[in-house]
């Protein structure tokens, strides 16, 4: 495998494209908005330059990655010849299904179609294509260039061959893979959403400040990042969509914290909007 396509040029899409590019893949980054692609190009090139300057990648890898990155609004051009396609759009099942139906028509039969979803069903997505055996979830973590894990979720019809190919891809990306049988929220999102939701409830109840809740988790439980910091980084709108899906599929204990819903309604989406549980101005 030597060509990859990333559909969606947001935070996760940019990180995934970077990971493939420094691993020697020819990478097409696709988004329907030209301005989003232009920003992605600037951000990825900046990250590559910083990584080279700090010695994380060699000058040769840096230059090769720059040469191997292409930015394309036309999904057909971006995906038709790729060996693996990773969808990294909003956590909306209808949107993902629409994209996978398009990819099913566009991509060569042997191509792997992967979703970067953190909660949603690769079985449901794959069932809307003619190749459910080639559909899988590859859940990368933010920031992709620092996080070593890929959570791989096989759908009901995902083949062993596809999972083995994804394992090889993960190794090429210098990532560690865990294999998960499909269930809403998988492993990490179920745990992380519960912890984050409880932190939001404690903040809302006045138990402690956001900074002290996060500090307690980092210093007391050895978490690398506090749950409220992490929610701001992920995006509070994304976290709300995840919580709503888990509440719908797994029940009452995943009911979104009222303050999460309130913040999203107010446009406090976290780091990307400049304000969430913290201010980023």
Automatic annotation (TrEMBL):
Residues 185-280 form the 3-hydroxyacyl-CoA dehydrogenase C-terminal domain. GO terms for molecular function: 3-hydroxybutyryl-CoA dehydrogenase activity; NAD+ binding. NAD(+) binds at residues 8-13, 31, 91, 96, 118, 142, 272. The record marks 139 as: Important for catalytic activity. It holds the Pfam family 3HCDH_N. Keywords: NAD, Oxidoreductase. The keyword Oxidoreductase applies. Belongs to the 3-hydroxyacyl-CoA dehydrogenase family. This is 3-hydroxybutyryl-CoA dehydrogenase. The lineage of its organism: Bacteria, Bacillati, Bacillota, Bacilli, Bacillales.
């Amino acid at each position: 495998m030597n060509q990859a396509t990333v559909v969606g040029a947001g935070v996760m899409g940019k990180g995934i494209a970077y990971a493939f590019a420094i691993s020697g893949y020819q990478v097409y980054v696709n988004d329907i908005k030209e301005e989003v692609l232009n920003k992605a190009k600037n951000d990825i090139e900046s990250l590559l330059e910083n990584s080279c300057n700090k010695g994380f990648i060699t000058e040769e890898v840096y230059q090769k990655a720059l040469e191997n990155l292409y930015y394309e609004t036309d999904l057909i051009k971006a995906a038709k010849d790729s060996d693996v396609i990773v969808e990294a759009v909003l956590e909306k099942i209808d949107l993902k299904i629409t994209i996978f139906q398009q990819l099913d028509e566009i991509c060569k039969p042997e191509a792997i179609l992967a979703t970067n979803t953190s909660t949603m069903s690769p079985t449901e997505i794959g069932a809307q294509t003619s190749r459910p055996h080639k559909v899988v979830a590859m859940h990368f973590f933010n920031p992709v260039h620092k996080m070593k894990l890929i959570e791989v979720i096989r759908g009901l019809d995902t083949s062993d061959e596809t999972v083995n190919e994804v394992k090889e891809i993960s190794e090429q990306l210098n990532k560690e893979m865990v294999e998960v049988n499909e269930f809403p929220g998988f492993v990490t999102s179920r745990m992380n959403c519960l912890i984050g939701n409880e932190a939001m409830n404690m903040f809302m109840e006045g138990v402690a400040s956001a900074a002290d809740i996060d500090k307690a988790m980092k210093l007391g439980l050895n978490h690398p990042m506090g749950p409220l910091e992490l929610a701001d980084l992920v995006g509070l709108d994304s976290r709300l969509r995840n919580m709503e899906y888990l509440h719908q599929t797994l029940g009452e204990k995943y009911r979104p914290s009222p303050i999460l819903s309130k913040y999203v309604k107010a446009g406090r989406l976290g780091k990307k909007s400049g304000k969430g549980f913290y201010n980023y101005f």
